Amino acid sequence: MAFFKAIGVFINKCGLSHMMIESNIIASGSVNGLVEGKHFNRCKRLHPLMALGLKMLHFDKCLDNIEYNFLKEQVIDDRLHYQEAIDSHSSMPIELPNNVLSRVLSAYQKFVEETRQGEHGKTAQFCLIYIQLVNYYITL
What we know:
The chain has helices spanning 2-11, 16-22, 31-36, 40-66, 72-87, 99-116, 122-139. It is mostly helical. The longest helix is centred in the middle third of the chain and has 27 residues, at 40-66. It is globular and about 50 Å long. It starts with a helix and ends with a helix.
């Protein structure tokens, strides 16, 4: 619960709580408990949900920047296949099914590093730090 309080202090008055209210995933009266980390079940549900949404927006922005001609659905399906291979903890080396996907993932990794350095703005950098904090919780 202390970790969720730290995340709550990090996101306090940054606008994420307003996004949660406007998208009807939390009631306005529940924001204080979320920010203070007092409602563990609510925190463990909402923080990963918000991090996933921000990560999807970040990935879409990356796709807009790299200007490849491909279908987003195909890339997402290939990425899910790649993620399943990683999650299975297979000892065999992972072969990406598509050269385009391989280029997109390497471009996205570069885009993430640029965002961490603040090249895409302070808001994107802030959101990436939030995503990383939530990922720490998920991996624990």
